Amino acid sequence: MKLLIVNGPNLNLLGEREPHIYGPRSYDDLCRLIYGHAQKTGCQVEIFQSNHEGTLIDAIQASRAGYSGIVINPGAYAHYSYAIYDALRCAPVPAVEVHISDITAREPFRAVSVTAPACVKTISGHGLEGYLEAVDYLLAHAPDAEKSAAPRCGCGGEALV
User: Fold this and answer.
1) How far, in Å, CA of 97 to CA of 92, rounded?
2) Which helix (H) or strand (E) holds 123?
3) Least confident window among 32-36, 64-68, 84-88, 108-112
4) 111 and 118 in contact (C-beta within 8 Å)?
5) What is the DSSP string of 18-61?
6) 59: exposed, middle or buried (Cβ count in 10 Å: 0-12, 13-18, 19+)
7) Burial of 62 (0-12, 13-18, 19+ CB in 10 A)
8) CA–CA dist 115, 19 (Å, integer)
């Protein structure tokens, strides 16, 4: 199984930006953690980060190329990007939204994610390990694109997991 890990704005600054909220580990630490977990679980992952909304949408649309699922941390875009919501709704694979911090326990504007309804699951406040939980969820619930001809969700369709 191959999963796409998509990270939004400012996640490249992990360890530097507000470590009292996001922790002391760096973005490279996050990538190593995910790659190590993927190796242990026998899946492939591609990790992508951008600070630009359109580039994130392009990455989500690339999920058509043999991926079985998406793990996405849209960062602040979670709170206002209906464009990312639409891209996730049109993705042919299930997505799990991850937030390192508990967005419901922070500023009021962060309490609502407009992108979460386009995902099959949201994991919030579990630190970097939330990414591993998301990978495990997709491994257990998403059809393997390399082995399955099962129908996929898509624009206007409902998630199949």
Assistant:
1) 16
2) strand 121-124
3) 108-112
4) no
5) -HHHH-S--HHHHHHHHHHHHHHHT-EEEEEE-S-HHHHHHHHH
6) buried
7) middle
8) 25
Distance of CA 143 to the CA centre of its chain: 17
Tokens of 108: 């009021």
What is the rounded distance in angstroms from the CA atom of residue 122 to the CA atom of residue 144?
21
Phi, psi (rounded to 5 degrees) for 111: -70, -25
Q: 């490249």: which residue's tokens?
A: 12
Residue 67 has pLDDT above 60, yes or no: yes
> Which residue type occupies 120?
V
Residues with catalytic function: 22, 99
pLDDT (0 to 100) of residue 143? 80
SS3 99: strand
Give the phi and the psi of residue 102 in degrees, each rounded to 5: -85, 100
| Tokens representing residue 83 in the block | 């464009």
Residue 131's identity, in one-letter code, is Y
